[in-house]
Design a protein that fits this description.
The protein has three domains: 120 residues, Rossmann fold (3-Layer(aba) Sandwich), CATH 3.40.50; 185 residues, Alpha Horseshoe (Serine Threonine Protein Phosphatase 5, Tetratricopeptide repeat); 181 residues, DNA Cyclobutane Dipyrimidine Photolyase, subunit A, domain 3 (Orthogonal Bundle). The chain contains 22 helices and seven strands. Strand 6 and strand 7 form a beta hairpin. The radius of gyration is 24 Å and the shape is globular.
């Protein structure tokens, strides 16, 4: 009798539940990792994401062999035949897999025809289990992130003094919204040169005869747990002390600012959320760091990240199809090629092409914001986010894009739509400097599309938006607008869509 363990590409931890389930087994154990080409044909994935996942898988397989596990690493067209062949060759009598993070994959594995029983082991890569989140959710009228975050702080005793939060407040977000200023000099991020294993993956990805996105080189991400721990150490030492104040800022010359770039490693399992949170809390106490920086970072990990996953596992199967505003415009071609005269979008999209990464405000207030106010299909923009970002997965992108970014769930995740004019981008970035458009104009030759789309969005959806109390002040300003100007704004929006056409892919 041999127990098989199937390790998925986002479960690369020696402490993951399926591997741990056989820690005391006397029966033989065999492990398999599979690179599936069919799986990556689902959408136009970023080449660097493929390099990251496959190289991390190959390095993890090497580490398991060094730890004396019996490991098979397979490059295959599809999962089912690879598993069938391996199960028969190894004499597998039971196949175990840690519960997948993504629903479509979980549904797919239940349909596999295998020569042995399949056992799902509860996922242990999050602070909150599905059962625990759903038990908490049942006690709430609304699933507010702030309530969830506070409960998490209490539950895991993070930044707490007894029953009270350290510093007397739960949230220091008001101190973390400074616009950029001249002379900011954040430390450079920690990057790594590809080794032979990673270079082989880069060569494979570059040779694939299929539609993909972005560039494979230069590839500088870490691909092992040791790399991930070094990135965490560097962040805690050099970036966390000044992380908070400018975490919402955007600068052309400093793409990553003080952000940790930890999400790809967390989402692969190379780092665990509790060790990241504990490292930040320890630095706060040992080095007397500013609480607004430490709390702001911890909230991103044990607040937003855990909350988004909880929303994902709690929603009905129709959640990814929701479209509260009934937006149906196709995704513009520039999301794929970055060829747009709007400098903010050009800068962020070029950055994503190059490295598969943008920080949370670039994602929310530039990429998502434009898609929302321009009436882009939420499914189209969510598909793009999933494909384009190196840390993108179904469980991450559905609540972040369908819920928070596009408000397509009608307010489950966000308390109001995150819609903004060019004024926000002009205040929080240097992107408007030298742009073809004037961030102060909403009509006329140099009117910024963020401006006329913003007011057109408010006008189109006024009846729905008036039920969202936090936006009534803006609607009052809309009501003061002259009919003639509003007509010009509407015509700008119509003309823009007509001139852009569609570069959308449903890949």
């Amino acid at each position: 009798m041999t127990i098989g363990i199937w390790v998925l590409g986002d479960q690369l931890s020696a402490q993951q539940a399926a591997l741990q389930s056989v820690a005391d087994q006397k029966a033989p154990v065999s492990v398999i990792l599979i690179e599936s080409l069919n799986h990556i044909r689902e959408r136009w994935y970023h080449r660097q994401k493929l390099v990251l996942v496959w190289s991390a898988m190959r390095h993890f397989a090497k580490e398991l062999r060094q730890a004396r596990w019996s490991v098979t690493y397979t490059e295959a067209e599809d999962f089912e035949p690879a598993l069938q062949t391996w199960c028969q060759a190894e004499g597998i009598t039971e196949l175990r897999i840690m519960q997948p993070n993504d629903r479509p994959f979980a549904h797919m594995i239940q349909t596999l025809r295998l020569p042995c029983p399949l056992t799902l082991v509860q996922n242990n890569h999050f602070l909150w289990s599905e059962t625990d989140f759903q038990a908490w959710a049942k006690t709430r009228k609304r699933l507010l992130m702030e309530d969830f975050y506070r409960e998490g702080r209490r539950r895991f005793q993070v930044l707490m003094e007894g029953t009270k939060p350290v510093g007397g407040a739960w949230n220091f977000d008001a101190e973390n919204r400074k616009p950029p200023k001249a002379g900011l000099n954040p430390p450079p991020p920690l990057w790594f040169a590809p080794d032979a294993l990673t270079q082989a993956v880069i060569d494979k990805v570059e040779s694939l005869d299929m539609e993909l996105y972005g560039e494979a080189k230069p590839f500088r991400w870490g691909v092992t747990r040791q790399h991930a721990l070094q990135v965490l150490e560097e962040f805690i030492r050099d970036r966390l002390p000044t992380f908070g104040p400018y975490e919402d800022a955007m600068l052309t010359a400093h793409k990553t600012l003080w952000h940790g770039l930890l999400s790809p490693y967390l989402n692969l399992g190379l780092l665990q959320p509790l060790e990241v949170v504990e490292a930040a809390e320890k630095a706060y106490h040992d080095r007397h760091l500013d609480l607004n920086s430490v709390e702001g970072f911890i909230r991103q990990v044990m607040g937003w990240r855990e909350y988004m996953r909880g929303i994902y596992v709690s929603m009905e199967d129709d959640y990814p199809t929701r479209n509260w505003f009934n937006h149906t415009q196709p995704l513009p071609a520039f999301y794929w090629n970055a060829e747009t005269t709007m400098n903010c979008l050009h800068q962020v999209l070029t950055q994503v092409q190059e490295m598969g990464y943008a920080h949370h405000i670039q994602r929310l207030m530039v990429l998502n914001n434009f898609a929302l106010i321009a009436g882009i299909s939420p499914q189209a923009i969510e598909n793009w986010f999933h494909a384009a970002f190196i840390d993108g997965y179904d469980w991450v992108m559905q609540p972040n894009v369908i819920g928070m970014g596009q408000f397509a769930d009608g307010g489950i995740v966000a308390s109001k739509p995150y819609a903004a004019s060019a004024n926000y981008i002009n205040r929080m970035s240097d992107y408007c400097q030298g742009c073809a458009y004037d961030p102060r104009k909403r009509t006329g030759d140099r009117a910024c599309p963020f401006n006329f789309f913003y007011w057109d969005f408010l006008a189109r959806h006024r009846d729905k938006l008036k039920s969202q109390g936090r936006i009534n002040l803006v609607l009052a300003n809309l009501d003061k607008m002259l009919t003639e100007e509003l007509q010009q704004i509407r015509q700008h929006a119509i003309d823009w869509h007509r001139e852009q056409g569609s570069g959308e892919s449903t890949s």
